[in-house]
Amino acid sequence: MIGIIGCGASGMLAAIMAAREGASVTVFEHNDRPGRKLLATGNGRCNLANEDQSEEWFRSDMPETAQAVLRHFSKNDVLDFFRGIGIPVRCKRGYWYPQCEQASAVVTALSEEMRRLNVRVMYNVDVTRIDVVKDTDGTVFNLTVKEQGGASRTVSADKLVLACGGPAGDRLGQSDFGFRTLRALGVPVTRYQPALVPLETDQDGKKDIAGVRMEVSLTLACGDTEYREKGEIVWTEYGISGIPVMQLSRFAAKALTAGDAVALKVCMIPDAGEDEIREMVISRKGNPAFTSRNAAEALCGLVPGKMSQWLMKRAGIDPAEPFTGIAKECLERYASELSGLVLTVKGLRPYAQAQTTCGGVPLSEINPDTMEIKSIPGLYVTGELLDVDGACGGYNLQWAFATGAVAGRALANTRRNA
Ligand SMILES: Cc1cc2nc3c(=O)[nH]c(=O)nc-3n(C[C@H](O)[C@H](O)[C@H](O)COP(=O)(O)OP(=O)(O)OC[C@H]3O[C@@H](n4cnc5c(N)ncnc54)[C@H](O)[C@@H]3O)c2cc1C
């Protein structure tokens, strides 16, 4: 029997690919239904791949090995697979979604395909331990499984896929069982931490701007290296969130772990240069249209009102004071933060707010043709457990589907060759 732990994105692909070749597959899932994390993806719309397949979006210490895996089951293979199980797909600005934009349809189609292929799925079953037993016939994996409300028992599998994901996500069944178990089995696992996650920053008065949304450009400075993103962010009571922030978070995570200082520079008028922004502010000073206004009124229109008030406070500007009385150096300070507010990044938000995990099983530990762990024949690892974290935009699901498919096919082949 082939055992698969986790009925998520990669586990379902592995089960289907192996079962299509006639293998007997049992999936163990501690939730009461399949694909709970999958249902939450893309705000319930399931962004399942991306048109831009550049290496840089599959972030890893071994990007060539990640590419070698993806060559075995490419973006087009993912899209064809879904079309084949009744999920037409469409591309919106480079992001691939199911035509109906419903993650629930993706989960239904995957579940139905497993049912058609007689894959056995055991729900409400928590795998709590794995023992690798070597005998003269080869390796057997003894799983300690605990059914809800029941006692623990042992189930044996000839081959095993660890498809149980990482700790990212909120109440979706996620855990770090896979990482802990692999370490216990002697498989190296690099430090894992939340990724695609909001950042905690140090500025005063965070409550005053919480909830403000803005289009910005961001520059994350980690030691000597800079990373840039543009897009909509939201200010929060702990710091800063939004897709561009999440895209940068894995670099912040790595740098903070290395003990480097991490700073985030926010340009609040992203289409204008520093000089242009300064001019937008300072030129108001001598403009007759503004002489009868107070400072808040004179500086309105550049950024949302709450943000302007907050910047004024930092620049020492009293919003109620006549604009004509505001000192030029205060306006210079206001303009300078408008074009480049520098925040110190203190940390990452917890796993509950993360979409994925960075770190995990180094790709040097697996055979990229099969996803089998080199040191433990018969044990396969897929998805988020591997040290690849994709950027926002469908890369993590594509990675999960690809690694699941590669493992499932390889399992079917070893069975045929046995
Ligand atoms: C809110 C949110 C939105 C996201 N949106 C996107 C998106 O739009 N596009 C994208 O590409 N990626 C997205 N992701 C990331 C993506 O969902 C994951 O990268 C992907 O699901 C990982 O697949 P996996 O198979 O490794 O793990 P999972 O899909 O997490 O599956 C693991 C399964 O194993 C089960 N399990 C865990 N431990 C045990 C155990 N001990 N016993 C039994 N069962 C166990 C879990 O319940 C789970 O069902 C999002 C993530 C989140 C949290």
Description:
By secondary structure, this protein is an alpha+beta fold. It has two domains: 2-194 and 358-417, FAD/NAD(P)-binding domain, CATH 3.50.50; 198-349, no CATH class. 33% of the residues lie in helices and 27% in strands. The protein contains 13 helices and 23 strands. The strands form seven sheets. The chain has a six-stranded antiparallel β-barrel with strand order 13-16-15-14-17-18. Helix 1 runs parallel beside helix 13 and helix 9 (274-282) packs antiparallel against helix 12. The structure holds flavin-adenine dinucleotide. Residues 5-11, 28-31, 36-38, 40-42, 47, 126-127, 163-165, 168-169, 173-175, 177, 355-356, 383-384, 394-397, 400 line the site of flavin-adenine dinucleotide.
For the structure shown, list the relevant keywords.
single chain, 418 residues, alpha+beta, FAD/NAD(P)-binding domain, 2 domains, 13 helices, 23 strands, elongated, binds flavin-adenine dinucleotide
Question: How is the topology of this model organized?
Answer:
Elements: E1 2-5, H1 9-20, E2 25-28, H2 36-40, E3 49-50, E4 58-60, H3 63-72, H4 75-84, E5 89-92, E6 95-98, H5 103-116, E7 120-122, E8 125-135, E9 138-147, E10 152-157, E11 159-162, H6 177-184, E12 193-195, E13 199-201, H7 206-209, E14 213-222, E15 225-235, E16 239-241, H8 243-257, E17 262-267, H9 274-282, H10 295-298, H11 305-315, H12 328-340, E18 341-348, E19 356-358, E20 366-367, E21 372-373, E22 379-381, E23 388-390, H13 395-417
Parallel strand pairs: 1-2, 1-11, 2-7, 11-22
Antiparallel strand pairs: 3-6, 4-23, 5-6, 8-9, 9-10, 12-19, 13-16, 13-18, 14-15, 14-17, 15-16, 17-18, 20-21
Flavin-adenine dinucleotide (FAD) binds near residues 29, 30 and 168.
